[in-house]
Structures are given as structure tokens and as C-alpha cells.
Sequence to fold (839 residues):
Amino acid sequence: MAAITIVIVSHSKQLALGVRELAAQMVQGQVSIAVAAGIEDSENPLGTDPIQVYEAIASVFSDDGVLVLMDLGSALLSAEMAIEFLPEAQQQKVYLCEAPLVEGAIAAVVAAAAGGDIHQVMAEARGALLAKATQLGLVSSPLSAITPITTNIESPTREIQLIVSNRLGLHSRPAAQFVATAARFKSQILVGNLTRNTQLVRGDSINQVTTLGVRQGHELLITATGSDADVALEALQALFANNFGEDRVALNSPPAFQYEVTPTTHGELSGIAASPGVAIAPVVHYQPTHIIVMQHHVEDVEAEWQRLQTAIHTAQQEIQAVFSQASLQIGDTEAAIFDAQLLFLEDPVLLEAAKERILEHHINAEAVWQAVVDEVIASYHILEDSYLQERVDDVVDVGQRVLRLLSGNAPANLNLQEPAILVATDLTPSDTAGLDPTKVLGICTTSGSATSHSAIIARTLGIPAVLGVDAQVLHLADGTLMALDGESGRAWVEPESHILDLLAAKQSAWQAAQQEAQATAHQPAITRDGKQISIFANIGSINDVQVAVASGAEGVGLLRTEFLYLDRTSAPTEEEQLAVYQAIAQVLDNRPLIIRTLDVGGDKPLPYLRVGFPEANPFLGWRGIRFCLDHLDLFKTQLRAILRASIGHQIKIMLPMIATVTEVRAAKVILAEVQAELNQAGIAFDAAMKVGIMIEVPSAVAIADQLAKEVDFFSIGTNDLSQYVMASDRTNPRVANLVDALHPAVLRMVQQTVQAAHTAGISVGLCGELAADTFATPILLGLGLDELSVNPQSIPGVKQAIARLSIVASEAIVASALQQDSATHVRELISTEIGQNRI
Fold:
């Protein structure tokens, strides 16, 4: 299989990193992508640097070919100059491609991951917006009609039927994952909603998948025709088995409101409670530019089609920038809303319809775009499901963005000089994501709902919001004093003094509660009866550690070092690793840093270290410590980097996938060899650095007493331990329901591990997903764990949960839980105890 690599050259580093992230997600990191973007100038960071481009090409160079994608102007010149720095033999392997940056990168990585050669990959990139464009006859057919994909007529059709179990069904984020996964395969993927008796639609169309109206409990029929049909269906099955990543994620649902201020009074407006909190400030109206579209005849249809493609390409770049900023401000989970907008702009059905109307009917791009978007909007409006009807806001948002670019209008700009309450007819998700909570103190609109994406973003930003009030609010003069209570869903125009007093008191109480929550995050996690539990963070990058510290992490309980080894064509050098470990330790400022050695192989292969044979059971295969003990150069390089970084920092080493005492001793021998080499070279390191192991296979639990004599600490990985204990592949939908860390069998394994560790006098933590589930916190406390390591965003909630519990009550729950016969009964037990306020 060819190993084509990609280089992205852009004036904007933020844009390039966003494109790389989006493209990498499409192929799960199977293709190496390097970035050369921006310049080192804090006042004007936009630009390109030929040396940076040269270094990027060199870092991912492949004899199979390097594809270089560029954005504008000097990016091309920089790329051309960079090639001249390469040896002549390598120059012949580098190809500059004029394809659009975002969609070109996505198409290129998909083709490269599928094993295409450099010319096939270039062709896919160049045709990213034209794929299957001539196959739709839309004049007499609705937009939702199926467009066949040419496949081998001899290829069999496979099909599966799946039940949707995630709470909100295939809303935009899961639909985006479905489409992205389907697009990775050569086979034609079709999907239909059996529950609603819909026709089959194309699995690579974000709009067609979304408008199937799929909710929790609905049954879907998915068919695949082509050479990789079985693999494609397995990949889609895995998405459903994992609930599209929402199985343990509490969706940001509308808050439960409990307070009333006063009966209806003068100047009061009633609306929908969408985001809690109180705001008192002058109003400022927000009115985005309304674009009036006129249809007219065009002669040069190719130029008109190109004009629309250019506008779409620019819109994608803008949305990617919004996504990048939103990820920092509201987190990746909520920012994923904009993933669906990007997929909307890549929807082949939409693009084929637009192209056909321009080329065949000589209609201008604005009118064509408005028409196809209106058809999508209409298809959403006729859905029976109100939640999915509300997703039309995202279609309107992205549709208006492209129209603005086609018409040459500047984006609406909201620069508030003083804090205010924003009054508008409605706000799009993009509008809301761009708001500054220090200037926009509240939102009051005449439309919208508590489950809209704009409302979700407002809650995430902490901006109080009341939606759906009477339209008279639109006639208020700017500067009019308003008060709103996002918890009760009411607003007051020029409120009377007693209303202001009540709301001011409530606002003070609200702010005090928020400040207390933030302060709690940076306080130790101590139970009601005085037991302190260390709360660490699981991280996988330098950026993660900054978020962790800001969220109140007391250290890093798991640094997944795999990110250093992926997305490249060779292993990272000792110096590269040293720089990263030191940078992370520096941010932690002497807080503990537990570095897990490389955990790849088997189910997580490295492309530049080929196993040489397929593994029938990769979860039971050549992975973790087994892999490292067979790649001593790789292992020693990492150990040297970790040891060198340990000076002046509180760094510990953790070994993954330990199954035997022999493996631990072998790893310790290698560690001693590296230490001796460093001593001989006069290189300093922390000779007392602690060594621990992951407990994630049943054999390690069975001999935990022996292992505890060999190491300084344990960390339990419940994700893997659960599937090994239950002998169930968590990616197999037929048995994935058995993989539950709250099953008594798994809990008994955790208890046995904790007891063995404490008997030997060593600490034991837990770094699986279970640690972040506050519903399970009483169980974990009752089992006697010393540390919990969770994703950074979960730290405040976990600390607050611990502060509400006692060890004595938690131990009583565990005693009962261990006697239950299923995870379901354990959950019922916890719910009963919570409901009766016993914990």
C-alpha cells in the first residue's frame, strides 16, 4: 500500500492546524500530515516561510510521494522555493497541488488512506468539489433523491440493521461522524430509517442522513455495496456500539429551573428559559445583514460555478476558524457543532444540485445556492421530530455565510463598547460562539428554543438567555435598561426597583456559587469525613496540560505519549521527546507527571513499524509493553528522554499492559541499563524516580500482590480491564453492552487490586473513563482508591462530587454493590442511595 504524505501550507497557522485536525479525524491518523503555516511575528503572524515548508516536507518525506496543498499568493512561492532546498532525487517525489485547501486535504487523505498512488490522490484533491457531480438529474427530482455511486456490478451488497441508543439519536454531531466514516470507504453506503419507513439515502450526505429523523430507539437499515462492504459496515457498527462517543458524556441539556422571582409585574416579558443566570444592563440590538437574492441569467456558466466553489471554500475556512476558536472557548464537544456545518458544505448531493442548475439552466450562483439551501430547510421543517427541526438553524447559518461571500458583504460585526444585553430576532450558532461573555451579559430573542445549538453554546459560555419573548422587544431603543432571569425565562423592561433588588440579590448568589465552584476546583478533594483524594488529569498533548492546570488538576495521572509517535513517518527522536516532556513538566510546576511509555501495536499500529502479519485478535495481541520489549531501540530512546526530563520535576514512569512479573522485571533491567548509560555519559537524571504499572488485564489483578513488590504504584485502566474481564470487545455491537466498568465482576477486580496495593504499602489510582463519571464516585471512594485521573474538563465536577460524600457511606454502598448480579442493579443501588440522601 502506498504511503502518500500531505503537507499543508497556509498563511494562518490556526487554519492549517484546524484543517490537519479535521483531515486526520477523517482517516483516524492513518496518513502523515505536516503543517507549515504562519510566521514568527507576534504583530502580524500571517504569512509563509520557505524554510518552514522545507522542514515540513522533510519531516514526512515518502518515496511514494508528498502532496503539498497551499492556500493563497506567497504560499505557492514558498512551496516552490522549499522544493529547491531538497536533494534532486527527492524533488521528483514532491507534488504541488492547486486544490482547495480544506476539501482538498480531506479528499487527499481519504484517497491516501485507501492506498491510492500520488496521481490518484492528486486527482481526488483536485476534484474534491466535483465528485459525482454529473450523476444527479435534479430538475425533476427532489433534493433528497438517491444518487447512485458507480460500483463493480459483481460486488455483493451487505446489510445490517441497528438500533440507535444514544439519547438524541443522529443529531448533527453523530450524523457528522456517520458521514465521515461512510466516506472513508469505496463501497456505496445507503441508510434508511425502518421505524419511520423512509427510503434509503446516501450515507455520504450529511443532509440526507440528518433528515432521516433518527431518534433514540429507531431501527436503521444500512447497506454497503463494494469491495470493502464488510469492513465499512463493521466501522459503522462500532460507532453505534459506542453511542457515537456519547455513552458517558452528559449532553448539555436545558437546565432544570427552580426559582421564581415574583408574579407578573409591569414591563415583564415571558419567554423560554434557555440559559440560567441573571443579567441587568442596557439593551443593544443585533441585526445581521439580510441578503436579498435576485435571479438572473448568466452566460459564462463555468465562471459562475467557480465563483460558487470559491465562496464555499472561503466559508469552509471561516467555519474552521470559528471551530478552532470555539474549541478553546467552549470545548471540543460543543464546538463539534461546526463539524456538521463543514460537512454540509461538502455534501455531494447539495453540490451536484447547485452545479447542475448553474450549468444547465444558466442561473446565477446566489439564486442557485439560495434555492438548494431552501430545499434542505424545507426537508427539515417537514420532519415530525421537533429536536431535528431545530437543526435547521445550522443550515441557515452556513447558507447565509456563503450568500454573504457571494454578494461581497462584510460579516456582521458586534463591537460592544460597554456590557449590554443583546436583543435580536435570533442568533445563529456562529453568532453565539463569537460572543464575548464579558461584554454580552445576557441574550433576549424573539425566537429560538432551549435545545437549539445557540442555546447550548450560550449555556456553555455562561451567558444568561431568555428566548421566544414578544416581538415588542425589537422596538426598544438601544440603551433601554433590561433585566432578565435565564432560570425562570422572564425579562423586564425598565424594571421597578423592587424587581431590581430581587434580581440583584439572586445575581449575587449566582455569582458567589459560580466563584465557589471555580474555587473548589483548585482546592483539594476532601470527603465529608476528611479523606483526601488526589485528582489528576489524563492528557495527550501539550495543550491539554494547560487546560488541566486551569481546571484544578493536582498533577497528570496519565500522559499518553502516543501522540508523539503518530502522524509521522518515523519515530520521534530523543531530543524531540525530551523537549515535550520538559515543556509539560514546566507547566505543571512540580506537580506530579506520570508518563506512560508507548502503548501501541496490535489494535493501534504505527505505520512505520509494520507488524508483518495481520492479528486476528489485536486486543489480545502484540501491544503495550510486549511491543516495546521487542523494540528495544524505540523503548530505550523513550526511557532516556523521560529520565533526562526528570531533573527538577516530579516525573514518574508507568508501564502499560503488564500481564506478568517477568515483563516488569525485564522493563526494569532495560531502565537500569539506560540509567547506567546516562551515568557513564555524565548526564543527570532523577535516580529515585518512581516506576508504576497499569493494571488492565485480569492476570495482573490475580498476581497484584507479586507485582506490588516490584513497583511503586498501580494505576487501574478500567476501559481495557472491563472488556478483558467480561471477554467482550467493546467495538462489537453484539457484546458491547457487557463492557460496563460498574459490573460487580469488574468492581471485585478493582477491590482486589486496591487491597494488594495497600497491603504492600503502595498507592493505587484509576485512570479509566469510570473515574470521570460522578455517578460512580461513591463506588470509587468506597473501594479505597487513592487517586482518580480524569479528562481535564471533568475535574471540577469530580471534586465537587467527592466533597458531598463520606467514606463510611461509600464503603457501605460498595459492600452492597459487590453482592449485586449485574451492572444494572449496581446503578439502581446507587440511584436509590442518592435519592434517599444517604451519601
